[in-house]
Every structure is written in structure tokens, then in C-alpha cells.
């Protein structure tokens, strides 16, 4: 009994873990020696003390864990300017010699390609490429995990967790860990700017606002998985070392809500109404999800980040959700790509191009196709994973050809809106020439091939010849000498010794002026007069010509002063 009293007196001087260990020894001893008269009293007293010791053990674990509830307070990232604002961390300092991470040191976790540039302008901004391509370096760059809990504190937390498990308080341990770390992740993501948006919220947003949010989401996914969740996984594994199933369960319960908040936005985008302008952001989103599914980093080399960070049976739902989003994004991107081809062929805009120059639809489609070639690798991957087994290069070439053919079909339909046959051919000549020239100057030439270019150059030439024949044949006929001379070869009334009829000549000039006015001036006169450099094409005014012609027949030179 004196031994028990000594243990009771020393209870306040021991840690919860030490007290629990001693009391469990005492309880085992007296439980196996019930012959002692005082066994029942000692056991009751020891059990009472054990409850207090375990409560103290729980408090120690909670307080130590709570001392490092560092929350990422603020990070602002503007995708198209690659601007990082200050990151601040706040939290309770558990030990006097532990210092919070300096704000500028947090960028050390990012690869050099994703850190703020010292070469930016005065605003701190630095240019970056399109959202879908700024990650090329980051896919193979090394990320440095943030120190969420100091390494010297983790063994203490591990010992406390081990003693709680041995005491049979595994569920209590799980609850305490979840309550503390769950808050850290949720609050960190909230301060990052992550929002939980529904499909309806996405549908109501203006495109410019939504596009900016998608750009931020891509960045947040990379930061959350590669730094925040990876760092939390490391902490969890070290605290629960030796209890793998418990470690997986704790990590799953701590992260499931945060992951859901991130994936729900991507899912809302993937399920929203399709439109051509969304294709590129869908490809960007697919790229980041595929990057997280295929990249290996940190100390894990044999499996992807998603599979390694969210390992174990407890995280299977999270892994499935991430893979499900990746497939939905791929499917939606493919469907949007198909929609674009159909939209081009069925475009019914009545935008008039009075002078037969390049139609807005032509420039839009060509720019769209050019931009698609920035995503060649991603598109080929889509065809490879979700195609019919054909070569991804040939599939991309086939789709591109169909888009170009759809554009040509639409242009042929629009050309019929012209009442003037000459403008019909001029319109097709200009637009198909624009297509050919654009293809020759881009990567599309390698995909479509020289045969496509040569075939369409011939089409351009055909329409050019038809335009000249339709627009200028009548004009050229008026300047022909045929029909101007008399059949008899002698002098005629109103004629001259050469046999040319002045009346016919006058009529020819009149017809020439009328045909020229109809074929050129009415079509292109306003365009030239109102253009940027009319003086380049208009050298004389009507008054100048009248004066010069008058002086011509008076036999004066231009330098001779007028009377």
C-alpha cells in the first residue's frame, strides 16, 4: 500500500505518460495477487489515478499539438501576372526557442520557376506564359516541404500518441488530432482564397471572373497537394509511426473536407455548360490533375504524388474523387473540342464584309487553331488515353483538318450572300488565302502537311482567276480596238481617215467609265478613301484631272503658268 501512496504522491511530478505506465504496472500486479487484503482498495485507487493520468496525457498531446497550429494567413496569386503577395503565418509558439517561419522563407518550398522574380517591375509583377504552360518546369522541379511542426517536437508527440494507443484511447487520439489539424488545413485553404462553389454558382459568373478563378485554382491545387497536404502527410506519418492504419485514418479524416473543397470547384467547371472559350482552361485543369497523378517527387520515387500522399484504404475515396475529376475534365475537353468543329460549320452570323476581305470568323478560327497547338502534348495525351487506339498525331491532324474544312464550308455559304459574283470569288480568295498563309507560318503546317497547303493554294488561284474574269472582262472589252473601225475602210461621217468612228469611241469611253465605276469604285472606293493612307492610292482629285486634261489639249506643259 505504501508503494501505491508513493506513486500517488509523485503523480503530480510525472508526465501523464510516465504516471500511466507506473499505474498500469501496479494494477497488473494487484490484479494478479487478489489474495492481498487491500487489493480491492488499491485497485480502485489506482484506477482512479489512472483516469487522471490518462486525462493529463490527453491534455499534453492536445496542448503540444495545438502549439503549432500555424495557419497560412494570406497568399494572393494572379495567374496571368505571376504575382505572389506576402505570405504570413500565425500561431501560438509552443517553445520559447522556436521561431515562426519568416514570410519570405516560405517561398523556399516552391521551385525557382514558381517563386517571385527579382527582375520584375516596380510592382513586383513578372510576366508569365499562359496558364496551361507555366508548369512545364514545375513538373520536374523539386519542392521543399514546409516545416509544419519542428522535428524535435515530433518525437514527443509520437511518444504521447503511442501511450494513448497502448492505454486503449485510439479513438480519442484520432479525435484530438483531427480537431486540431483539420482546422489548420481548412483555414489555410480559406486564406489562400479557395472557395466552395456549386455548378449554379459557376453558371452565374461572368467569364472574365470565372477564368481568373480557374487560374487561381490551378495554382492552389499545386500548392495544396505538393506542399500543404504533403507536409501534413509527413507530420502524420512521424507522429503515428508504427501505427500505419491509424496514420492513414487520421490523415484521411483531416484532409477529406479540404480536398473536397478543391475538387468541387473543378467538378463544377467540368459539369458546367460547354463553350469554345472554355476549352483552354479545361485543358489547363486537366494538365494540373494529370501532373499530380503522374509526377513523383520528394522522397517518394515509385508512385505518383496522389497515390503516395493519399495512400492506404482510408484514402481510397479521395483518390477515386481525384481520378474521377481528371477523367471528367478530359471528357468535357474532348466534347468541347467536338462542339467547336460543329459550331464553326454552323456559324450563322450575318456580319457583312462588304469589300470581300477576311471575315471575323476566319481570323477567330485560325487564332483558335494556332492556340490549340500550344496544347499539342495535352491533346495528344487525351487522344491516347480516351481515343480509339489510333496514333495521337494522326487523330490531332484529322480533327484539325475537319475544323479547317468546316470553316471553308461555312465561308462558301457566306459567299453566296453577295449579289455580285465577282465579290463572291474575291471573298473566298481572300479568306482561303488567309488560311493558307496562317498555316504556312505556324506549327499547323507540320500537322496538315504540304499537300494541304498546295491544294488550298490552287483553290485560291482558281478564285483569283474567276474574280478577274468576272470583274474585269467587260472592262477590258471596252478598251479593245475590235468593232471601232468601219467595214468599208473609207472615211465616214463623224469619222476620220483612220476609219475609227468617233461616236463608237466616245461610247466605248463612256462604257469603260461606267464599268470601272461599277467594278472598282463602288466596291473599293469608300474603302480606299476612308483607309489609313488614301494618298497612297489617290494621287489626283477629279478637279486635278479636269484641269490637266484641259491643259493637255491646250498644249501647255505642267510647269507653264496658267493665264
UniProtKB/TrEMBL annotation:
What is any one of the record's Gene Ontology cellular component terms? exocyst
Matching entries from Pfam families are given as:
Exo70_C, Exo70_N
- Example of a GO MF term: phosphatidylinositol-4,5-bisphosphate binding
SUPFAM superfamilies xrefs: Cullin repeat-like (SSF74788)
Region Disordered: start-end pairs:
111-137
Keywords, in A-Z order: Exocytosis, Protein transport, Transport
UniProt GO BP: exocytosis; protein transport
Q: Does the keyword Protein transport apply?
A: yes
Domain named Exocyst complex subunit Exo70 C-terminal: which ranges? 216-518
Source species, domain of life: Eukaryota
Q: Does the keyword Protein transport apply?
A: yes
Q: What does this protein do?
A: Component of the exocyst complex.
Record family assignment: Belongs to the EXO70 family.
Q: What is this protein called?
A: Exocyst subunit Exo70 family protein
Lineage, highest ranks first: Eukaryota, Viridiplantae, Streptophyta, Embryophyta, Tracheophyta
| Gene of this entry | BnaC02g03040D
Amino acid at each position: 500500500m505504501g508503494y501505491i501512496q508513493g506513486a500517488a504522491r509523485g503523480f503530480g511530478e510525472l508526465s501523464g505518460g510516465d504516471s500511466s505506465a507506473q499505474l498500469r504496472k501496479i494494477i497488473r500486479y494487484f490484479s494478479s495477487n487478489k489474495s492481498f487484503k487491500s487489493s480491492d482498495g488499491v485497485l480502485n485507487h489506482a484506477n482512479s489515478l489512472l483516469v487522471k493520468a490518462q486525462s493529463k496525457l490527453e491534455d499534453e498531446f492536445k496542448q503540444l499539438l495545438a502549439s503549432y497550429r500555424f495557419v497560412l494567413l494570406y497568399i494572393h496569386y494572379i495567374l496571368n501576372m505571376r504575382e505572389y503577395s506576402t505570405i504570413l503565418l500565425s500561431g501560438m509558439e509552443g517553445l520559447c526557442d522556436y521561431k515562426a517561419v519568416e514570410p519570405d522563407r516560405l517561398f523556399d518550398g516552391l521551385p525557382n520557376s514558381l517563386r517571385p522574380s527579382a527582375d520584375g517591375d516596380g510592382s513586383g509583377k513578372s510576366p508569365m506564359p499562359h496558364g496551361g504552360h507555366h508548369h512545364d518546369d514545375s513538373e520536374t522541379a523539386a519542392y521543399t516541404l514546409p516545416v509544419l511542426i519542428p522535428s524535435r517536437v515530433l518525437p514527443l508527440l509520437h511518444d504521447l500518441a503511442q501511450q494513448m494507443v497502448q492505454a486503449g484511447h485510439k479513438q480519442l487520439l484520432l479525435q484530438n488530432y483531427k480537431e486540431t489539424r483539420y482546422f489548420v488545413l481548412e483555414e489555410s485553404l480559406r486564406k489562400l482564397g479557395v472557395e466552395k462553389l456549386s455548378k449554379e454558382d459557376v453558371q452565374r459568373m461572368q467569364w472574365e471572373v470565372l477564368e481568373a478563378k480557374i487560374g487561381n485554382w490551378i495554382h492552389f491545387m499545386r500548392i495544396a497537394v505538393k506542399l500543404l497536404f504533403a507536409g501534413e502527410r509527413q507530420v502524420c506519418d512521424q507522429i503515428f509511426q508504427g501505427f500505419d492504419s491509424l496514420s492513414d485514418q487520421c490523415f484521411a479524416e483531416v484532409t477529406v473536407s479540404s480536398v473536397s473543397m478543391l475538387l468541387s470547384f473543378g467538378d463544377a467547371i467540368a459539369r458546367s455548360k460547354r463553350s469554345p472559350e472554355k476549352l483552354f482552361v479545361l485543358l489547363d485543369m486537366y494538365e494540373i490533375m494529370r501532373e499530380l497523378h503522374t509526377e513523383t517527387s520528394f522522397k517518394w520515387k515509385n508512385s505518383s504524388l496522389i497515390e503516395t500522399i493519399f495512400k492506404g484504404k482510408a484514402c481510397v475515396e479521395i483518390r477515386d474523387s481525384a481520378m474521377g475529376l481528371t477523367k471528367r475534365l478530359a471528357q468535357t475537353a474532348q466534347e468541347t473540342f467536338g462542339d467547336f468543329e460543329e459550331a464553326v460549320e454552323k456559324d450563322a452570323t450575318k456580319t457583312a464584309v462588304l469589300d470581300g476581305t477576311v471575315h471575323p470568323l476566319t481570323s477567330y478560327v485560325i487564332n483558335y487553331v494556332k492556340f490549340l497547338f500550344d496544347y499539342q502534348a495535352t491533346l495528344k495525351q487525351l487522344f491516347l488515353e480516351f481515343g480509339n487506339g489510333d496514333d495521337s498525331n494522326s487523330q490531332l491532324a484529322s480533327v484539325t483538318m475537319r475544323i479547317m474544312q468546316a470553316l471553308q464550308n461555312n465561308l462558301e455559304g457566306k459567299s453566296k450572300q453577295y449579289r455580285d459574283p465577282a465579290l463572291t470569288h474575291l471573298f473566298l480568295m481572300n479568306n482561303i488565302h488567309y488560311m493558307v498563309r496562317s498555316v504556312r507560318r505556324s506549327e499547323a503546317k507540320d500537322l496538315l502537311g504540304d499537300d494541304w497547303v498546295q491544294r488550298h493554294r490552287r483553290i485560291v488561284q482558281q478564285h483569283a482567276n474567276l474574280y478577274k474574269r468576272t470583274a474585269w472582262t467587260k472592262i477590258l472589252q471596252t478598251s479593245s480596238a475590235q468593232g471601232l473601225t468601219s467595214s468599208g475602210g473609207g472615211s465616214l461621217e463623224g469619222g476620220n481617215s483612220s476609219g475609227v468612228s468617233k461616236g463608237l469611241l466616245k461610247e466605248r469611253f463612256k462604257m469603260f467609265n461606267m464599268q470601272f465605276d461599277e467594278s472598282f469604285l463602288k466596291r473599293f472606293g469608300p474603302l480606299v478613301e476612308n483607309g489609313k493612307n488614301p494618298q497612297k492610292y489617290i494621287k489626283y482629285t477629279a478637279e486635278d484631272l479636269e484641269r490637266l486634261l484641259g491643259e493637255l489639249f491646250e498644249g501647255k506643259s505642267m510647269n507653264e503658268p496658267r493665264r
